[in-house]
TrEMBL record, chain A:
InterPro entries: Bact_TGase-like, Papain-like_cys_pep_sf, TgpA_N, Transglutaminase-like. Pfam families: TgpA_N, Transglut_core. Keywords: Membrane, Transmembrane, Transmembrane helix. Residues 407-478 form the Transglutaminase-like domain. This is DUF3488 domain-containing protein. PANTHER family: PROTEIN-GLUTAMINE GAMMA-GLUTAMYLTRANSFERASE (PTHR42736). The chain crosses the membrane at residues 21-52, 64-81, 111-128, 134-152, 172-190, 556-577.
Amino acid sequence: MHSSISQIEFEKRAMPIVAILLAHQLVLIPLYFFIPLWIAVLNTLVAATVFYCARNPHVVINRWIKVGVTIVAIAGVYMAFRKFSGRDAGVSLIAVMYGLKILEIQTKRDANLVLSLSFFLLVAGFFFTQEPLIAFYQFIPVIAILNAFVAMQSLEKFELAAGNLKGVLKDLSRYLVIAIPIMIVLFVFFPRLSGPLWRMPGASVATTGVSDLMSLSEITELQTSENIAFRVTFNGDVPNETDMYWRVVVLDEFDGLSWRRTNRNLLPDMDETVFEGSFDYSITLEPTKTNYLVALDKPISSPQNASLVDDQTVRSRFRLLDRTRYQLSSKPSLIIDSSLSQVQRSKNVRIPSSGNADSVDWARDLRARVNSDEEFVNEVLRIINREEYYYTLTPGEMDEQIIDSFWLDKRRGFCEHYASSLVFLARAANIPARIVIGYQGAEKNPRTDYWIVRDANAHAWTEIWFEGRGWVRVDPTAAIASQRIEESLLQEYGQRLGLFDDFEIVELDQVGLLKELQYWMDEINSGWNDWILDYNQSRQRQFFQNWGISGLSDHMLIIIMLSIVSGLVFISGLKWFHGRTERDPLAQRFENLIQRFEQQGILKVEPHFGPKAIIDKLNKIDETRFREHTQVLNRYITLRYAERTPRQEQINELEKALTKLKVRS
Amino acid sequence: MPKGKSVTLSQRSTYILPTGLGFFMGLILLLMLVGATNYQNNLAFLLTFLVAGIGLVSMIFTYQNIQGIQFSLINPGEVFVGETLPLPISLRSINRTKHFSIGIGLDKKNVSLVDVPDDNYVTLKVDVKAVNRGRLELPRITVMSVFPFGWLRTWAYFRFDTDIIVYPEPLEPARLDTQNWGQESEEGSRVEGSEDLYGLKPYQDGEPLTRVDWKSYARERGMFIREFAAHESADLCLNWEDFPGVDNETRLSYLTYMVLEASSNQLNFSLELPDKFVEYGEGDEHRKKCLKALALFGEAPQASGTSHA
C-alpha cells in the first residue's frame, strides 16, 4: 500500500499533466478577452494535443512541427500588430510563447518553469482590466497553479494534489488563511513610488473627472472636452454670468505634487434667516461616478439623499451613475468660517517642509513688505496681471518643484497652476488658503430657460481666509491680462449649443429600491476603486495619517512591514506546532503505558507497535490477566482513530483509565 | 543531532533553504514586483504579495512536514564486510498528521521518498555499505522534504544507535587441511563428550577406540562406532593458529568462512582466538556467537566493561 520510491525514479515518473494543463489554461483564459482570438484557438488546440499525447504515449510530436508552429505563431503576432513592443503586442507574444511552451515539457524542470511563469502571466492580465470580477477570478488559477506544484511533488499519482477537489481546497485554504493577512500587510505597508520607474509606450492615461486629487496637468483633458457637465434652471433670480462659480470640491492638503481633499464633517441645516437673498435653482447633473454634487457658490441647503459638508460643498449619499436632478439654494454673500480654530488655521497654512524653497522665500519676502494679508493677495494678483504670465492649456512639462517651476520660471499655465501657486504662496506667508475645484460660467440655451455648463468650464480657483471676512473667493486666473490668453481659447467661446438627449433623469429625492440596490453595488465598486486600485503614495500617507502616524519614511515602512510579516509567520508557525504536539493527551498516556510495560519486562515493544499489536502480545502472554488492558486499549483505538473527533468527556474518561491501568499483577 | 534506536527530530536541528526552483520563484516575484511598481498596478501588487505570502507560509508547512515523525531502526539481517546492508527504517507519525514525500537517505541527493500515513507506519530501506568489521557505525541519515511546492527544502540529520555487527568478509582458505580437522575433533570429543548421537555403524580397524559404543558391545550386539550428526562425524575446533604466517584480517576472513561452512554442515565446533574461546556448540545462536567473536576481534575489552556496569 505504502511503498517508497527512489528520488531518481521519482524524477523520471510521468508528470501530472492534467493538473499542469488545467493551471496553464486557467491562467490564459482572462487574457483571451484582450488579445486576438486566434491565439486562444491555437493555445486550446495545443493543450488538447498535449493532453492526447499524454494519454497515448506512443504519439510523439515531431520537433520540427513544434518549431514550425512557434515561428508561424510569432509571425502571426507580428502581422496583427506590426510590432512586438507595446502592451497589446507584448502580452500577445507572451501568451503565444507561454501557450506553446506546454509542448516542450519533457522534464519536471520544464514543468516547474512553466508553472512559475504562470504567476507572471496572471500579472499581465491586470494590465488590461482591473475589474473586481477578474481580480477574484484570479484566485482560481492561483489555486490551480499551486495544486499543480503539489501534484508534482506528490508520490501518489493524483492529478489533483490530494486526490479530490474538496481536499485540495481544504489543504490550500490552510495556506491562504495565513497568506492573505500577509498579503494585506505587504499591500498596506509596501512603499509606493510617486511615478513609474520608466514609461512604456501605449500605457493608459488617467481617466478624467473631478477627483479628490488634483494633479497639475489632469484638468487639461477636461478643459478641452465639449461634453455637457450639467444644466441649471433658476427659479426666480439669476446671478450674473461672471459670478457663476460652481463649487464641487475643496482641496486643502498639499504633498508637494498634488492637492487633496481631507476628511470633512457634515454641516447641520442652515437657519431659515440665512435664506434671505439666496438663489433657488435645480441642477441636472450628468453621471459623474462620484459623490460630488455641483452647487452654486455657496450652497446653504442640501437635497434629500445628500448633505452639506463643512467646506460648503454638497455630497450625495451614493455615486451618481445616472443623470440626476436636484434642488438647491445658494447665497453668494454667505460668510463662512468668520473665525478659524487653531487647528483649522494650522491645517490651512500647512505646506511640505521641504521643496519649492524659492517660492517660499519669495512669498515671505513679499509678506514682509506689505501691511496686511489682503494687500499680499492683491499684490500677487497685480503681478499676475502686469508681468509676463500667460494662460495656456499646453504649459509644457514642469519640474519636480512644481510651484518654483511655474511661478518663478515658466509662467505659463492654466487655472490649476495659478490657483495652486496662489494658495501655496499665501500659505507660505502664513495666510490660510485653499483650492476650490468646480466650474465657472454657463451659457444660456437660447431655446429654453436653462443654462448649460460643459466640461470645458471646469475651473480651479482659491479661497483665502481673512480675519472677519471668512473665506473669500479669489480667482487668480481672472487676473491674467486678456492679451496673454491664448487666442484659440477665446474663439471657442460662445459657439456651444446643447440639447437634452433621450437619457432618463433620476430625481435625487425619489430613489426607488432597485436603484438603491444598484447604488449599493456601485458603492462596493467605488470602494474597490478607492481602496484597492487607487491606493497610491498619497493615499498610503493619508491612511497612516488617519491612524495618527505621519512622516513615515520608506525605510520605516519596510521595517514595520517586515516585522509584522515575520511576526505573523512566527506566530502561525508556533501555533501550529503547539497545536500539534500538545493536542493529544491520549497518545501521551498510551506511550506512558507502553513504557511501564517495558520497564516491568512484560513486553518488548518495537517502536512501530500500535495498540492493536500490543493487545495481541498481551493476549499471548495471559489473556485473563490483561483482560482489563485489552478493554481499555480497544476503547483507545476506537476513540483515537475515530472518524469524528471524540467528545471531551470521553477523552478525559479514557485518559483516567489509561493512567490507572495496573501493570504489576 | 538526535540519536537512538528510535528517533524524533528536534526542531532546533532542522534546516530550511530555498531550492533552485525556489530561487527562480523569487526571481519571478521580483519581476512581478518591478512590473507592479512601474505600472502602479495595485492588483499586480496584491497578486505578488499573495504569492509571496504563500511562499512564506509554505515555509511553515514544509518545515512541519518532517517534524512529528518517529524513525525506528528495525533489526536488520546479518552483514559481512563488503556487502551492502539494506537498513530497514520504519516511519510513524506521532502527531496524527500525514507526512508527504518524506525523503530518507545518506545524503540529500540520493534519498528514497515515502508518504507517512497518520494511522499506520511505513518501512523503507536505506542501503548502507559495510566497510569495516566490528560494530557498525551507521552513517548520518538525512531526512528531507520539498513538499508541498518544491520551493523550499527542509532537512535534518540523525544517527541510530545500533548494536549491528559487521562480520568479517568470508574468504575460502587457500589450503584446507581436512585431516587436521579430524585430529582436533578427537581431542575435543574426549573433553566434551558427544551427546548428539546420530547412529551406529560397524567398527573397522584403525578407528579410534574412544568412539566405540561400548554399551552395545557389552550387550553383545557387536562392535559399533558411534556416528555423529555430521557426515564428517567429527567435532571441530577452529583455531587461530591453523593459519601460520597469514595476517590477522585474512585469518579472520578464513575463520569466518570456516564458521559458515561448519555451521551450514551442522558441525559441532569450537572457535579459538587469541583473546577469546567459544565453546563447542552448534545451531544458529552458536554461529552468531562465533561470528561476533570474529567481528569484534581485537576490540578493546571496554565493551565487556560497559556491559558489566
